[in-house]
Fold this sequence. Notes:
Layout: E1 2-4, H1 14-29, E2 33-37, E3 40-44, H2 49-56, E4 62-66, E5 69-71, H3 76-87, E6 93-100, H4 109-123, E7 128-129, E8 136-142, E9 146-149, E10 152-154, E11 166-170, H5 176-186, E12 190-197, H6 204-221, E13 225-230, H7 232-241, H8 247-266, E14 270-272, H9 285-292, E15 299-300, H10 308-318, H11 321-324, H12 346-353, H13 358-367, E16 370-373
Parallel strand pairs: 6-7, 6-8, 11-12, 11-14, 12-13, 14-15
Antiparallel strand pairs: 1-4, 2-3, 4-10, 5-9, 8-9, 13-16
Helix pairs in contact: 3-4, 5-6, 5-10, 7-8, 8-9, 8-13
Amino acid sequence: MVRFGEIYLKGLNRPYFMRMLVERVRRAVDGGHVWLSDSRVYVSDLTDMAEGIQRVTKVFGVHSVCIAVEMDKGDFEAVCNQAVEVLRDHQGTFKVNARRSDKRYPKDSPQMNRDIGEYVLQHLPHLSVDVKNPGTVLSVEIRDFAYLYTNAVPAVGGMPVGTNGRALLLLSGGIDSPVAGWMIAKRGVSVSAVHFYSFPYTSERAREKVLDLARALSESLCGIKVYMVPFTEIQMRIHERCHSDYTTLIMRRYMMRIASAIARDERAQALVTGESIGQVASQTMEALRCTDDVAGIPVFRPLIGFDKQEIIDLAEKIGTYEISSLPYEDCCTVFTPRHPATRPKMELILKGEALLETEALVEHSLTGMEVFEM
């Protein structure tokens, strides 16, 4: 049994979100029977139930998942007998949490709590009731059928991927950007990614590391397309012709230009980065304004107010931290200036960019681009 949360807040368009959730659950389990009934999603006929639950908990839009016993609701004594079987191997304290979705059912929720609890105590005297802090909660839902379960596994929540537009993630090999992509996808956004590499200054292993990050994200993101963009020539030109204090910032502006061009082809409505304000020199308020100036579309930064430890904690939770920590550099670490500008002046940026063949450099990188789908 799969529950959803925030979708309940939707109005007349709720059926669209629910259909999308069913599709995402069906994709996650890759087999079995998946259907929607009476505000629940159900999955049956799985060969490995434990793995199925683990995969469904990663589906954005899912609030919790449990293994439930489905039975006819008409025979209340049979429901009570099943409650005894569900709790037979449990120890300590319990309480019954009944919910009557079918309001025509002759017993209301408080009555079911009392009657089922009394029946269980009569047949399982080793158990006792604790309504405030029980060791086990027996949930009983009366819907088209009666459903009984004890352990609901928390899931990621959010909204089903694909219900809230498209975005392009600037994916580095670091800790932050994969977390930013995961967070924006949690809001229902379909995410593709672009990575900039600088061979031979960055290795093939560094490139493969980014693809491994994409693979780690793909399960929750319902697949991801990765654009691999060669960036060496742009970086060399910037290093040769521009003031050293501004090289990182000008490089970031070129990334934004290229990402915006890819986003237009992708029909993405925004760019996403893993920047956190003040974390490094290129992420001051002034520097972010300068990079956004060339984007042409909104730039979302889900981590803007996070500190590093918060980001690390979330990276560990979603399974990207170990990959991100591999010691393979990305292009952002190449030609890093000793004293990067933290309060850049736009006139100096434009003066440096005037020394570069912007359109030709951008076109050259786009021409050499490769695309991978996970």
